[in-house]
Amino acid sequence: MTARARLFRAPMTIASLVLVCLFGILAVVAPILWGEEALTARPTELLQGPSAEHLLGTDNLGRDLLLRTLVATRLSLGLAVLATLLAAVAGVLVGGLPAVLGGRVQRTFGAVINTWLAFPVLLLAMLVAILLGAGTTTAVLALVLTMTPSFARLAQTLASRVGGSEYLAAARMLGVSRRRQFTRYVLPNIAEPVIVNVTISIGGGLLALSSLSFLGVGVQPPDYDWGRLLKDGFAQVYNSPTAVIGPAVAVVLAGVAFGALGESLAGHLRGQDHGHTGGRRGPAPGPGPGSGPDGGQPSTPDTLLEVDGLSVAFPGEHGWVRPVRDVSLTIRAGEIVGVAGESGSGKSVTMMAIAQLSAPGAEVAARTLRFGDEDLTLLRGRALRGALTGVGVVFQDSLTALNPAMRVGAQLAEVPRTQRGVARRQANRDAVAALDAVAIPDPARRAGQFPHELSGGMRQRALIAMSQIGRPSLIIADEPTTALDVTVARRVMRLLRRECDRTGAAVLVSSHDIAVLGELCQRVLVMYAGRVVEDVPVDALRDPARLAHPYTRALVAALPDLDSDRDAPLATIPGEPPDPADPAPGCGFAARCALATDRCRAEVPELTGHRHGGRVACWHPQDREVVRS
Amino acid sequence: MSALDVTDLTVRFGRGAGALVAVDGVNLRVESGGVLGLVGESGSGKSTIARVVAGLRRPSAGTVTVDGRDVTGRRLPARERARLIQMIFQDPYSSLNPRMTVGETIEEALAAREEQDAAARRAGARELLDLVRLKATVAQAYPRQLSGGMRQRVAIARCLAVKPKVIVADEITSALDASVQGSVLNLLRDLRAELGLSMLFISHNLAVVRYLADRIAVMHHGRIVEEGPSDEIVHAPRHEYTATLVGAVPSLDNAGTDVLTRDEP
């Protein structure tokens, strides 16, 4: 099912769309069919109540109110649509053009829009009416004047994003004219939200126009719109209350229809942005048949974490997407284990699933997920949280992982306060001590600062301090050095290693750079297409001939180092990684592997113990010829 | 003969005493047909230099000349500047207009070369896609349908379409995975041999810069602290900061050793 098809299946969308279409048809045909009759005065039937002949009664000239309401659809909606469109065009020009005209123009226009937005709507409309005299043109103009700034603000916000984009910078460097920058780069990239906003605003515009007509400054007789009908009906509301029902219902229904249609379009756009468009089909795939708890690594008495058959699935556009499949790993107490893999390999999803921090909507399944003495698959709620106090997590982006509105020390102190009920003063002392332990200079002062006042490296160290303060036996660090400069990264790695040596905590740390993991870890798990393809002791990384999986070998060979031959091309891996939403059977790497056979394309190789002391999942391990010393 | 000369370039952010000097009197020279690598950590000012050289930002002082012509002034018409200098950006996900097909993007660049004939532009786009080792069918695709490596190839093709005198490449592989990075570097290396490109290649990754550049300039706190032939910079650094930088590059040769627990020098 495509995204568009799904949009048009949502009940609210269907209902609002049907209503909007009905109003559209009415606006076209009603004046043709009943235009004459709605004007026909019947002196004998003045101000009548509802009857079989006149369902909503008649007005003070004996004209049929139902027909008049239907015929008024064209003028009411037409004016609302016209005013909204004019306002949208003006707003997009005022808000969007500055993006291609440079910083000074942008600031000036921004100030204009802000001032404009501050004007009260009704006051502006009245002012226009006084200046120009009441009438249809006045009402539309007043509406355009009041709606333009909000469109301008929307366009300004959206366009400034385009204005700061590299593709616009690239266009500028090509010497693309400003006009073309606007029509070809800015407009298409801001169109969708603006269209949605137009749809929503038509409802509001209709209401505003009706109000103006109702107040007598809008449509003037002999023309009539719903607001005018309401005004006329209201004069006799005590004699014939039904006179206001028709136009009132019409205004509300049309307003709601356009509003709801816009909202469901907007909801759809938001869903697209986040990639969560629902569309589940069938139950989430479980861990599936596998080797069973005993097939992976045998668990030894000092095993701290044992994961077997871990799978994570997300609902995707075409059914379930499984970024992690049947992952098995163990970590001994105090061991530092790396997870290497490229984007989309499933390493982050694996680590977050172990830390029980999967994104909402994820289905996590495992045959075994044992941490210490606790089976995490059986625990819920408070018991699970209790078990997880033994796990510290270090996130990649230190800026978003810390609460920007809370002092660093207070955030650290939260951990002992909530986990062990430590008193505030003691917790604060612990926090400063933890910052001191990660070599943050002047820790007492830094504890009193906010995250943005610390440099990136210092924030990352504060995060490590935070993961340590709960005295965890396992630290899960997801790409802790990726966002950092090499010298800072080196310092953070050194710190992580030393802290673990000091406290005896084990670490599961991921990186896309296998060289980083080689220096930091004792063992590296190489992930590809959601599976662990090799589990290798790091000393084997020094000698690529000892690596068994073709992917690991390719990954190591592809990294340029300070001694790479500048006259030879770098080793590369042909092809593209597989799409997790559309996996091929067999080994995930088969499509890119020069050694793949039919068996590789049909059967998933099992992760089994290998002669290099680790494990490998490959039908053709490559270290065969090497004679081990 | 030099293709690009940066002379006494200074860029200040803000005014008065509180101004931040991002680039402080920098001199750089890219030889015709040569590749100069510029390395440094975040905040060192290397991306600011890239933006000034590319004409996206005006310097506070100093000049940038390409082929002897000043490209920082406003007097230079946009199209002429386009033919002197082009830039490849870091993030191939944001450097391509999501609402234009690959073909349209490249044809836009061909138009900058004053190629008026639509059929000739289409043929040119096909040639360029071929040059960056992409299939001709990619021309109909939108950026979102391509992988990061493919997008970066499209960005390279767009840049080559103008046949600029100098190319500024700012961290063009740092958003790519290791396996893809290699193929983009290989492509640039081949294109350089084929087309004799002159390039200012900016990266935080010393190994990547060393692979591609003839000479390397090391930047620290807005200044060039050392400049020299690539292998000398990497294997015999003279400045203390360069040595620190070289020492911090993670290496598989250190795998399983106690390099991290050893005391810092």
Automatic annotation (TrEMBL), chain A:
Keyword Transmembrane (UniProt): yes
MF-aspect GO terms: ATP binding; ATP hydrolysis activity
GO CC, one annotated term: plasma membrane
Membrane topology (UniProt): Multi-pass membrane protein; Peripheral membrane protein
Family named by the database record: Belongs to the ABC transporter superfamily. Belongs to the binding-protein-dependent transport system permease family.
UniProt name for this protein: Oligopeptide/dipeptide ABC transporter ATP-binding protein
Compartment(s) where it occurs, according to its Swiss-Prot or TrEMBL record: Cell membrane; Membrane
Organism: Actinophytocola xinjiangensis
Alphabetized UniProt keyword annotations: ATP-binding, Cell membrane, Membrane, Nucleotide-binding, Transmembrane, Transmembrane helix, Transport
Major localisation: membrane
ABC transmembrane type-1 domain ranges (all copies): 73-262
InterPro entries on file: AAA+_ATPase, ABC_Ni/Peptide_Import, ABC_transporter-like_ATP-bd, MetI-like, MetI-like_sf, Oligopep_ABC_C, P-loop_NTPase
Gene Ontology terms describing biological process: peptide transport; transmembrane transport
Region described as Disordered: 269-303
Pfam families membership: ABC_tran, BPD_transp_1, oligo_HPY
Spans traversing the lipid bilayer: 12-34, 75-101, 113-134, 194-217, 237-261
ABC transporter domain sequence ranges: 305-554
